[in-house]
Design a protein that fits this description.
The structure holds 2 protein chains of 2 kinds. By secondary structure, chain A is an alpha/beta fold. Chain A has 16 helices and 9 strands. Chain A folds into 2 domains: 282 residues, Up-down Bundle (Cytochrome Bc1 Complex, Chain C); 202 residues, no CATH class. In chain A, helix 1 packs across helix 4, helix 5 packs antiparallel against helix 7 and helix 5 runs antiparallel to helix 10. Chain B is of the alpha+beta class. Chain B is built from 2 helices and 11 strands, in the order H-E-E-E-H-E-E-E-E-E-E-E-E. The chains are: A alpha/beta, B alpha+beta. At the A-B interface, helix 1, helix 4, helix 6, helix 8 and strand 1 of A face helix 1, strand 1, strand 2 and strand 10 of B. Strand 1 of chain A pairs antiparallel with strand 1 of chain B, so a sheet runs across the interface.
């Protein structure tokens, strides 16, 4: 499984590298797959409301009303119908890339199992919603889909009646058709909203909207497609005729050829097996997370910055229990904590300039990698540096592998997330023998722990607490956020060399 | 918005790829449900097969042993025989299907549904059904000679009152 993830991650990183060259300023669509999916759902909702105005929810009226929209009012309802279809298809693309990307980047196990697990039924619901949409047109494709779906349902041994008889020879009733319309228009969308809410319920500060430029670009693409290739219906349902050629929407209707060729049992087996495999993935094998963050109230001022910065909502501020003046204290929910260390970097008491002759203690830190251990590591590495242009590189485990940058003049310190780095550590490093500091994090907009690189950047530019002190010489500090792709490793090497050349010896 | 030629060309290619995937997979490749020279036959009806075993007439002694409210003169096993159907095209085997009656005791009516494709043209289609427990022979047979038109969909039902197949 590790080899599969590593290989897939390499492919994804190469694709992202290509896209990063054309989508600047965090606009890479791969970094906004979740919010793009929400955006496509908005298009589906708005276009769906419009075409519902003209849609007849009965067997006899459905097809003519869709034909009216497609051909007579093509300039508005026709385009809306096309947008409705293509935005639904686009949502499937973004969902699948999102799913594979999270898998390859190993962001589906451990504490993150819940989002993955709840995403799988969401996928089913999206597909069922799409399928019911195709029924409503009531053309030959709709009849084919209805019959094949009925074959699937009838295969379930617990249901003794035969659903398929409802669709033979135009025996479908208005009542059944209205039920399908209700499911597509209200029942399934409401269920989908509930599942989506569950899917994102374990992460904080969710960005539901993609960047404007990306939203405009995606919308214009869908609009262009709607004009170039408007969505059209198949021939109307005709008694005594079977369809010969069907133009299936493969994003939603791919299971039906399986029903025809292998039978409903195999179709259930393949789709059910795939679903089961997806749901079990977080435990095949499971991921052992590091020990969650630990609070030390003797050092905590109760400022609440750790709770603000936690990307997983695992820290909440509760009434103080130790009788100190501060009103609140942080409480860590272990089941939500990924042990990223961002809280440790956000704590003002993590400053290595404190307690220089004693064990450094922070208000909140990782028991397996304390700020004192970090200070010790930095201290030893500073002592081992030689030559001129001596630089300490702080890297993120999930971004560029900084070990490849090691040299006599360059020491590297790897962190679980660049957000774990207290800004005062830079001050400490420059005061204790380094000529410069390079902070390397995940790519802009693509932090493995969601906000680690953003918080670090804001702390260094003085936009977020705890801020880098103004006395620190900014020419000796640089940031470079890159992924671990080969092209960016080379680029990082060049950037580091240029940075070292720009440094004047402190002595 | 793209600011350089490289940004413009990369974005153009990315959106074009997005456009292309949606353009193609939203309707293609075309799925040939039937070949252009094929027609389709659907068997679709509800039928209750015969009981697997004949009812047994209870003797007065057997009746005496039963509680008074359960003294029915016949003891009828619930389980019904599987329904076996054969289709022949121009007297050659086209397909066979067996339907096990649903229900925990396999005692309910069977919903027969199966579909078959056959070549267009003038052909004789024979349907034979066995609905009782025996090794050979058929209880119902029907034949239909007709010109099968490409894309034609014929449904074969069963009329319980007329005790025979109906070609619709």
């Amino acid at each position: 499984m590790d080899a599969l993830r590593r290989t897939g991650n390499k492919v994804i990183l190469s694709l992202e590298l290509m896209l990063n060259r054309g989508f600047p300023e965090r606009l890479n669509p791969f970094y906004h797959l979740g919010s793009l999916t929400f955006f496509f759902f908005w298009i589906v909702l708005i276009s769906g409301i419009y075409i519902f105005i003209f849609f007849e929810t009965n067997v006899a009226g459905a097809y003519p009303s869709v034909e009216y929209m497609t051909h007579q009012q093509w300039w508005m309802a026709g385009i809306m119908r096309s947008l409705h279809r293509y935005a639904s298809d686009a949502a499937v693309i973004s969902i699948f890339i999102h799913m594979f990307r999270e898998f390859f980047r190993d962001r589906y196990r451990g504490v993150r199992w819940f989002s993955w697990f709840t995403g799988v039924p969401t996928l089913w619901l999206v597909v069922i919603l799409g399928i019911t949409g195709y029924w409503l047109v009531w053309d030959q494709l709709a009849q084919y889909v209805a019959l094949a779906t009925a074959e699937l349902v009838d295969w379930i041994p617990l249901i003794p009646s035969a659903m398929v008889f409802n669709f033979l020879d135009n025996q479908i009733t208005d009542r059944f058709f209205t039920l399908m319309a209700f499911l597509h228009l209200l029942g399934l969308p409401v269920a989908l909203v509930f599942l989506l809410w569950t899917h994102v319920s374990r992460i904080s500060q969710i960005d539901f909207n993609p960047p404007r430029a990306l939203a405009i670009g995606s919308f214009l693409t869908l609009l262009a497609l709607s004009l170039v290739k408007p969505a059209v219906s198949h021939a109307p349902v005709q008694a005594g005729h079977s369809p010969v050629i069907l133009h299936l929407d493969w994003f939603y209707l791919n299971v039906y050829p399986l029903v025809d060729t292998l039978g409903p049992g195999w179709a259930w087996g393949i789709s059910g097996g795939f679903t089961l495999l997806l749901m079990m993935l977080p435990w095949l094998p499971s991921k052992k997370e590091n020990h969650p963050a630990r609070v030390d109230l003797t050092q905590c001022s109760g400022c609440g910055q750790c709770a603000l910065d936690c990307p997983y909502g695992s820290i909440s501020m509760q009434p103080r229990t130790d009788g100190k003046k501060a009103k609140f204290e942080p409480t860590v929910n272990d089941t939500l904590c990924t042990a990223c260390g961002i809280c440790s970097g956000s704590c003002v008491s993590s400053s290595p300039l404190r307690m220089s002759n004693a064990t450094l203690k922070s208000g909140i830190e990782m028991p397996w990698f304390t700020v004192d251990a970090l200070r010790q590591e930095v201290k030893h590495k500073l002592a081992a540096l030689s030559g001129t242009g001596r630089v300490i590189v702080f890297g993120c485990e999930h971004g560029l592998d900084v070990n490849s940058l090691k040299a006599p003049e360059v020491a590297v310190v790897s962190l679980p997330c660049s957000g774990m780095l207290p800004p005062s550590m830079l001050d400490y490093v420059l005061k204790n023998g380094a000529d410069g500091v390079l902070v390397s994090g995940c790519r802009d907009g693509d932090c493995y722990h969601r906000f680690g690189n953003t918080w670090t950047e804001q702390r260094l530019t003085g936009e977020r607490e705890p801020k880098l002190l103004t006395r620190v010489d900014r020419t000796r500090v640089t940031e470079f956020r890159v992924s671990n792709s080969r092209g960016e490793r080379d680029e990082m090497g060049k950037r580091l060399e240029a940075f070292r050349r720009s440094l004047q010896p402190t002595a | 918005m793209p600011r350089t030629l490289r940004e413009f060309s990369t974005q153009f290619i990315a959106y074009a790829l997005f456009f292309g995937v949606l353009y193609y997979l939203s309707t293609a490749p075309a799925y040939h449900y039937l070949l252009p020279d094929q027609a389709e036959v659907k068997l679709a009806f509800k039928h209750t097969s015969q009981r697997e075993k004949e009812c047994h007439e209870r003797t007065p002694e057997e009746l005496q042993k039963l509680p008074p409210n359960m003294r029915k003169p016949q003891d009828c096993p619930r389980q019904r025989a599987p329904i076996y159907i054969e289709l022949l095209l121009d007297d050659k085997f086209l397909a066979t299907r067996t339907f096990i009656p649903p229900g925990l005791s396999h005692d309910m009516s069977s919903f027969i549904y199966a579909k078959f494709s056959l070549p267009a043209g003038r052909h004789k289609l024979t349907v034979r059904m066995r609905d009782r427990l025996r090794a050979d022979g058929f209880d119902y047979i029907a034949e239909e000679m007709r010109d099968w038109i490409p894309g034609q969909g014929i449904q074969i039902g069963f009329d319980e009152n007329k005790s025979g197949f109906v070609f619709n």
